[in-house]
Amino acid sequence: MAARSFKFISPGIFIDEIDNSELPALPAEMGPVIIGRTERGPAMRPVKVGSFSEFVQIFGNPIPGGQGGDIWRDGNYLAPTYAAYAAQAYLRNSNAVTMVRVLGAQATSATNAGKAGWTPGTKGTPIVNTDAAATNGGAYGLFVFPSASTYSEAGQVMTGALAAVWYLNEGAIALSGSMRDCNASGEGGTVATGSAALFRSLDTTTPVGTSTHAGAAKNEFYAIITDSSRNIQKQTAFNFDPTSSRYIRKVFNTNPTLVNSAITNTAQQETYWLGGSFERHLNIYATGSNAGESWGTILGIASGSQYGADFRMGFQAAQTPWIVSQDLQTSFTSYDILGTGRVKQLFKFHTLDAGENEMKKLKISITDIKVSPTDFNSYGSFSVEVRDARDSDNAPVIIERFSAVDLNPNSSRYIARVIGDQYISWDDTERRHRIYGNYANASKYVRVELNSDVDAGATDSRYLPFGSYGPLRPITWNYVSGVNATTPDASGQNSWVFGGEKIAEAVYGRKRDDGDHPFINMSGGTDASNNAGATVLTLTGVGSLRGIFPGIPLRVSASAGGVSNPKDAYFGIDTTQAGNNRHEDSYGDILYPMPVGGDSFSKEGGTEYSYLFSLDDISTAVAGNADGVGVWISGSRIAGNSYTAVSGAYTEVLDVGYNRFTVPLYGGFNGLDILDKEPFNNTDLATNQADTTNYGYYSLRRAIDTVADPENVEYNLMAAPGIWNTGVTNHMIEVCEARGDSLAVIDLETGFYAETENTNSVASNLGSVSTAVTNLRNRKINSSYGCAYYPWVQIRDTITDSLLWAPPSIVALGTFSSAQKKSELWFAPAGFTRGGLTEGSAGLPVIQTRERLTSKNRDDLYESNINPIATFPAEGIVIFGQKTLQVTPSALDRINVRRLMIFVKKEISRMAATILFDQNVQATWDRFLNKVNPFLRSVQARLGLTDFKVVLDETTTTPELIDRNVLYAKIFLKPARAIEFIALDFVITNTGAGFED
Predict the structure, then answer these.
(1) Which of 424, 594, 653, 986 is 20 to 30 A from residue 264's alpha carbon, by CA?
(2) Kind plus residue range of the DSSP H or E element containing 963
(3) 3 state DSSP class of 490
């Protein structure tokens, strides 16, 4: 402290303590960047984790593969997530990994073959299902209608619901049983098999083929699935009771990969799979309690040229619907929640992580809605809760909470400022992410999007979140009985059933004799070969058919579910089963995005809101509401009996205590081909190796490019475990070399194929040393910024105790980590001391190698710069080499020297950065030397260097360079070399010989 800093007033001695021994902060530890699939987590952007527990929290557990079950509903656990195992291996002995989770993306100018996502049939080509009885597959839905006996008055609408959707690679699906005939009663009884016709649900007397059906349950039907030649592939009764042995998800295939003949043995192949089934949605409309009380029809799902089985699109994040305001007007007779003049769209939420996991895992609640308590600030407040989608209102599981936020852009509690509104968007031209939004994201899970008027402060300050629109769904279709309508809906909007005009085919058609199962061919017109006769069906006692696509049920009563205090109930969506508080399993199926051509988030002609909810419709004036608790009935405000209508003030419902509601997240999509066990398999990657023609190739290259900028992401290793595609692995090496601070650990094309890639025998899938050597030599790689290993190894999953074959890059990464912990990173990660996989150097238990290498094998591999993973009788499994892929002989053809140079360059560049923009004079040079020399001495003392010299004087930084603002130093290094060969002469002498000779 300078003397002038002391306060001298009276005489005395002034003492201060100055601590110059404080150590500078150490830079954050660097580790590898690992690229690949994980169970969940942020997609297509680098995320750094510091421990395996943190990795699991964000990205989920490693998946060993081979796990079956309901693949459509529960997700793909069929193929191992190699990237997750690589992270686990490295984090066993280190605390830094940067993870890039890969989802399906597509190039801006992608061809049909290069589009992400999935569609049945030939890759990249959607199936056009324009006819219910077509044989080329597509998407087909079962619509179920209640018994006509409940609609006894003519002119009433017979309303049904979509109950399930099947996706067919080929062929068709039809119902079989008692068809609703064109007679006076409409009940009929003709036994038939067909689609686009009404069939009665089964009971004990229902004929199916030549026999009756026994033991039928509510809403039980009999379906027959045929292939393109009309051969029967599946025939079974099914219902929607999860406890029944005939439950739809028990009797039909729910694994899309079984239709893929490239990876499924013939005996196991299917021509179809069951997609979503909507049990609770069905029970709302088909309310009968007994068998034989409903009617069903199979209809193709399409709208014009948009096909219900076409999900060829890239990954996208989930969103909530728009959250809307209250009605500020006292007049309620003209209330319209969709009216832009009265009810305002305020904000919505987006998941930060793209894909399907977050939308199934989370939901958003708006709580504690309050008007402003003062006259000085008219903005009210509310809280936002990020909740577990599987919880119930009886026991809410709140993951995040943001209290007392508001819609005032100038407030410190402005919702965007508190939660965050930033998002990243990939620029395909500049190959980098761009960041948009004003406020950094404080939430780990969501960001908020504000209506531009709200963000500009141009809306009424009294606005509060009061409700929401529902997720978009295909528009409800209608068919007027007895009319061959050309448009299915009075509004003229296209339906998502048979491309609109085809809906008339649901109730008229012609029969075709097909043995014991006449097939109803719904192409219309007359045809003698098909028993001539398209007859319009009159629905006796019913004015029209109406089919509703699935929507999430809403809470009707505050007392539903047994909430102890009705004021604690959250109105809005209900994610539990009817009658109990267990999670409704069909909830995730409803959240699935619209097919290509049907925007999941912007309302258009072919879509509608699945619900319109507002606290303005909460009321007690409902018949039978004896306990007087609040109930939500759509239309209560416009009918004049809601709290806000009766009181004339929107504050009334809040004052009563109903001030919270819940909205879903929906429309998230992984962008992966669900017909593949491993979406990024090397077989597909080898086809059309171009960004525009192969979505897997593009996605992996894009993931690599997200970490190409050294100023954006720091790492010293790169790996994409299990990917040996030459274009991808070459790109990895090129990026590492361009950065100059990372080593790519690549897997090689060795002839080995994982069992997820084909149907070959184990013997046929084995690799060979000669294949590995030949393929690598043909690539003509000469770079010290890459390395490779052989062969694959078997590891044990420490969580599930499963065994799986893993690519060698996984254990190589684990060995790099353990070797660095045992010694230094410039020690060779190989040999019995640091490369003993049996001894745990890999960070994961290694059981055996895919091939036991001979001494000649090891020589052939090492001569080709491939590091052998050898097995010895006593020492076990050992990494027995440490070469880079540099062909030119030099110190840099060894991994330990390359890693040393990466480390030294990175650290000295950081030191150099501290003198940027300082004066280019001797004093500055001395400061730099005083940092670099001790650092290099430390490396030398730790056996990284045998000698070094740093030259920074007038001979390097000349007056000319000083005039050009340049400091130029030369650093000479002698790397310590590893011992790879030991030569010993054992000399046997005579007894009388002297050893000194």
Answers:
(1) 594
(2) helix 959-963
(3) coil
Q: Would you say how long the chain is, in residues?
A: 997
Of 76, 88, 72, 74, nearest to 34 by C-alpha is: 88
CB 547 within 8 A of CB 476: yes
Q: How far apart are CA 168 and CA 271, in angstroms?
A: 6
Which is more confidently placed, 752 or 731? 731
Q: Is the dihedral of CA 248, 251, 254, 259 positive or negative?
A: negative
Confidence of residue 302 (pLDDT cuts 50, 70, 90): confident
DSSP state of 948: E
Q: Which residues on adjacent β-strands are paired with residue 365?
A: 385, 662
Question: Residue 80, preceding bond cis, omega within 30 degrees?
Answer: no
778 Cβ contact partners less than 8 Å away, ≥ 6 residues apart: none
Residue with token string 């939308």: 359
For residues 759 and 234, what is the distance between their CA atoms, to the nearest angstrom?
A: 23
Nearby residues of 382 by Cβ (< 8 Å), 6 or more positions away: 366, 367, 368, 369, 370, 404, 405, 406, 464, 465
**DSSP code per residue over 329-376:** -S--TT--TT-TTTS-EEEEEEEEEESSHHHHHEEEEEEEEE--SSSS
Residue 504's alpha-carbon distances to 139, 175, 578, 766, in angstroms, are 18, 18, 33, 56
Which phi and psi (to 5°) does residue 587 adopt?
-55, -45
pTM, full prediction = 0.90
Return the structure tokens found at 128: 């056009």
At 57 the three-state DSSP class reads helix
Structural domains present in the chain: 32-113+672-896 (3.40.50.11780), 138-313+474-548 (no CATH), 322-469+552-585+611-664 (no CATH), 918-997 (no CATH)
- What's the CA gap between 41 and 61, in Å, rounded? 11
pLDDT of residue 502: 38
Query: 3-class DSSP state for residue 685?
Result: helix
- Render pLDDT for 530-589 as a digit per residue (tens, 0 to 9): 332 333 334 444 556 788 999 999 999 998 888 888 899 999 999 999 888 899 999 999
Distance CA 549, CA 164 (A): 10
CB distance 537 to 180 below 8 Å: yes
Phi, psi of 301 (to 5 degrees): -105, 110
Structural tokens at position 202: 């089964």
**Does residue 509 surpass a pLDDT of 60?**
no
Among 145, 993, 262, 810, CA closest to 506: 145
Strands 535-536, 508-512: pairing is antiparallel
Query: In which region does residue 189 sit, left (phi positive, over 0), alpha (psi from -120 to 50) or beta (all else)?
Result: left
> How far is the C-alpha of 903 from the C-alpha of 595, rounded, in Å?
49
Q: How many CB atoms lie within 10 A of CB 908?
A: 18
CA atoms within 13 A on the CB side of 653: 33
The residue ranges of DSSP E strands in 262-344, in sequence order, are 272-277, 294-300, 302-303, 306-307, 317-319, 323-325
**Which DSSP letter does residue 204 get?**
T
Place of tokens 């790109």: 731
**Residue 92: closest CA among 850, 920, 798, 823:** 798
Is residue 760 exposed (0-12), middle (13-18) or buried (19+ Cβ within 10 Å)?
exposed
Q: Counting Cβ atoms within 10 Å, is residue 626 exposed (0-12), middle (13-18) or buried (19+)?
A: exposed
Per-residue pLDDT reduced to its tens digit, 3-58: 555 555 556 565 655 555 544 455 567 899 999 999 999 999 999 999 999 999 99
Instruction: Work out the burial of residue 3: count CB atoms within 10 Å of its CB; fewer than 13 is exposed, 13-18 middle, 19 or more buried.
Output: exposed
Residue 642's nearest CA partner among 340, 345, 332 is 332
CA distance readout (Å), 366 to 351, 385, 662, 692, 790: 16, 6, 6, 43, 55
